[in-house]
Structure formats: C-alpha cells, structure tokens
Design brief:
The chain is 69% helix and 0% strand. The chain is mainly alpha-helical and 204 residues long. It has one domain. Helix 5 runs parallel beside helix 7. The longest helix has 16 residues. The termini are close together.
Length: 204
C-alpha cells in the first residue's frame, strides 16, 4: 500500500511511474551517482578495505583527517571541500561546518548554483543528506538556477534522498528532460536514482 497522501500525486504516479517505468529504466550498476550513494552510506572506510590499502594511502588518509581535525577556520574548512577527500575527512569537516549552519548552508547553496567542481558538489551532497536538518525546500528552490548539468543531476539525487512526495513529479520531469537533451551523457541517472529513493520511501 502506497504511503502517498495526496490523491493528485498518487494519480501522477499511477499514470507515469508504474512498474513498467522502472522496468524500462533500471539503474546503472556503477554510475557516478550510485558510487556517491554507496559512499554516503558510510562515514568511515570499511575496515577490510582499509587493511588492503597501501601504507602510503593509509598515511594520506590519516594526514587528511589530522588537518581537518586541527583546522578551526571556517573559510579554510569550507574551501577544503573543493579537494578530493576521503569520506571520513568530509565527515570531520561537515561536523565543524554545521556548527555554523545558519551561515554555511546559504553559502553552500549559492556556491552550488555556479560550481562545476565535482569534489565540492559531491561533498556538499554528502553534507546535505547527512545533516540533521532537512534542506529539501531550499534545494528545490535553487534547481532552476544551477548552471551545470552534473551539479543539477546530483542535487536532484539529493532531493530524492531527503525530499518528500511533492518532489516526485519534479524529479520525473527532470529525468525526462535530461534523457531528451543529453542523449550521450548520464545526467538522467541523478534524478532517476532520486525517484528510486522516493519509490522505496513511499512504497509506490
């Protein structure tokens, strides 16, 4: 039984998002969005994977974490998100930044409108999904202002993770738009994964 409350939204699902839609649009096994989704599910690296890393890589991770733990300047921490960091380092930075969320979240949303830095985009996604507060409305409000398609695709994925039933049609429309306008790219995987997340959440 679907957990959808709105009759209008349920009708939209019945007309557009039945089993045939998901059969015709299976998720790619190793898209950038699936990899991001998997890494977001953990803050620290799996112990077995960590053991298999080279000593140099282990030292690199320890050093990243040490720098993040010792840094107290908010601007420097924020700018570290533009670098390729392991998930545990991003978690350390996120915990510090979210102590100033009233300043950091508006700044992050503004940055996302024009950022093409994959590291920043993916670290921001991690923070927006894992923070205690729900920023789905704020994310939905900036979607049309986001300049780069990959940034937009990741934010639609985030909306699927933390959004609610009112965002289902939004994600569907963007999925269709990406499929039509970027035939050789995989941007449609972002909103599609978001739709799968909302399907799981609302059991439709």
């Amino acid at each position: 039984m679907s957990k959808i409350v709105s009759r209008e939204i349920q009708d939209f699902i019945d007309n557009n998002l039945g089993e045939k839609f998901f059969q015709d649009n299976p998720l790619k096994q190793m898209s950038a969005y699936r990899i991001l989704d998997i890494t977001i599910s953990v803050d620290a690296m799996d112990e077995q994977i960590y053991k298999e890393l080279t000593e140099d890589k282990k030292e690199e991770i320890k050093e990243e974490n040490r720098i993040a733990e010792n840094e107290e300047d908010i601007d420097r921490l924020y700018n570290m998100l533009r670098k390729g960091l392991n998930p545990s380092t991003v978690a350390i930075i996120a915990n510090k930044l979210m102590m100033h969320k009233e300043v950091i979240i508006p700044r992050m949303l503004e940055s996302l409108k024009k950022s093409a830095n994959d590291c920043f985009i993916e670290s921001s996604a991690r923070i927006l999904i894992k923070t205690e507060d729900n920023y789905s409305k704020e994310i939905a409000d900036i979607l049309t202002e986001i300049k780069y398609p990959y940034t937009k695709a990741v934010m639609y994925y985030v909306l699927g993770k933390i959004g609610n039933e009112e965002h289902i049609q939004t994600l569907y429309n963007q999925f269709i738009s990406f499929k039509k306008n970027y035939k050789d790219e995989k941007f449609s995987e972002g909103p599609l994964l978001g739709l799968y997340e909302l399907k799981r959440k609302y059991e439709f």
